[in-house]
Here is the input.
Amino acid sequence: MAGWHELPKAELHLHLEGSVTQETMRLLAPDLSEDEIRARYSFGNFAGFLECFGWVVKRIRTPEDYALITRQLLADLERQNVRYAEITLSAGVVLWKKQEFGPIYDAVQRAARSSPVEVQWNVDAIRHFGVEHVMQVAELAAERVGDGVVSFGIGGDEARGPAEWFTDVYRFAHEKGLRLTAHAGEAAGPESVWRALELGAERIGHGIRSVEDSALLKHLRDRDIPLEISITSNVATGVVASLAEHPVRRIYDAGVPIVLNTDDPGIFGTTLEREYEIAATAFGFSDAELQQIAGNGFRYAFRIDRGRGDLRNVH
Here is the structure.
């Protein structure tokens, strides 16, 4: 396939705050120099990424800022022929910044409604901030079921926020009608994925360390549980040592369903089209395989807006 624009695509693992490009940052913070912004966006490991992410989110200060970055992101997705996106909005970060979540959510939801890209929201918490924090975020998500919020998840440090802490929170979220996700198996090993599955996670964010456990790969395959894989992200954060060592091909060949995503495209300098190109050129995915993976983005979506047609039939 000569280009990936023509392929209808969905994005299921995409952080709004991480979509802020260096160009958008100049709009948010015109007092900063290009050199300072470029330096902040330069890092070589996971700790450096977290530092960059924290620096970015501190400069998203108002509901209008959140609306701006939503419009910028959706314009970019539209250019790539992304038809559907489940965008993660970090209510955990909003609370950490001591901001009011309601006006921010209203602003991003208004911005999303103006885009031809169908948007559903995943609201996530910072797991290493503890149970009380995570429950507070789940309650914010539950209040907005039916108003664009489709799912709830946890991100952050897997080791400092073990999944077993959140059994009651995930039960609450499920009972309120939220679909369930969790970051797992990114920096931590396959046991982190097992624990996320025990919580009830229906999709796993990253999950690439699953490749270390053949029983887990079989479980994911047999239970049809997809991994949201973001190749560039994993290389940029040092989760894998190099592009050549990324396990995406082995995971796919083991029969585990996967979806390609960008994670934090503004920070990592990638696009969804680029992720497909990397899969083709670096890992030998055929056009037919990539079309099937693109279809997975619609197949494993948590909600389809029937008013715009059944997007599972567009691929």
In short: The chain has one domain: 9-301. The first helix runs from residue 22 to 28. DSSP finds 15 helices and eight strands in the chain.
